[in-house]
């Protein structure tokens, strides 16, 4: 590692390393095991993991091999295992949060939400995929349908929408309109707004029941 003045901070003697220094620590490898050094070259996180990623908001994503399986967890800057390395995968939004309050953990190929303060799981049995909108919301899917969980873990949009694009459009409309409560009638109007048939009728035609909001 060199600094902006090209001064060597950590000597070139490691097998592999992360591309960035994050929160004052650099993840690197010794004897095929990963750990973290500070910018004085001191080993802050012991070299014991099969894989690690740079620290983010006080946590680092690490991997341990169990038999033939890879299992993932989170450690804090003190090296303590905050989330046990027992999950198939861990997802979190690297852009949409000021603090990392929760992560999505996978078991049996389904993702549930793990609150890092209470250590409680929610949204079980889980969703088949999770994506992020960069604003703290999680776009989730199950059985080919999509919905949204907000930053607080509340189901903002029920998992009943046909595409993730429509969910994103709904989130944007909620934001623009200042909607604070998604009542059944508000949700119905959002569904109508996202329905491609809403402007497809001639004045003399019968309008489908699912395009009326009263």
Please provide a brief summary of the model.
With 214 residues, the chain is mainly beta.
Keywords summarizing the entry:
214 residues, mainly beta, 4-stranded antiparallel beta sheet, elongated
Structure description:
The protein contains 2 helices and 16 strands. The protein has helices at about 165-175, 185-195; strands spanning about 15, 25-30, 35-40, 45-50, 50, 60-65, 70-75, 80-85, 90, 100-105, 110-115, 120-125, 130, 140, 145-150, 155-160. It is elongated and about 80 Å long.
Question: What sort of overall outline do the alpha carbons produce when their principal axes are compared?
Answer: elongated
**Average pLDDT level:** 91
Give a count of the beta strands, DSSP E runs of length 2 or more: 16
Oligomer: single chain
Pattern of helices and strands:
EEEEEEEEEEEEEEEEHH
Catalogue the unreliable spans: none
Total of DSSP H or I helical runs spanning 4+ residues: 2
Strand order of the largest sheet: 1-2-3-4
| Helix/strand structural class | mainly beta
Q: How are the SSEs placed, and which strands pair?
A:
Layout: E1 16-17, E2 25-30, E3 33-38, E4 43-49, E5 51-52, E6 59-66, E7 69-76, E8 81-87, E9 89-91, E10 102-107, E11 110-115, E12 121-127, E13 129-132, E14 138-142, E15 145-149, E16 155-161, H1 164-177, H2 184-193
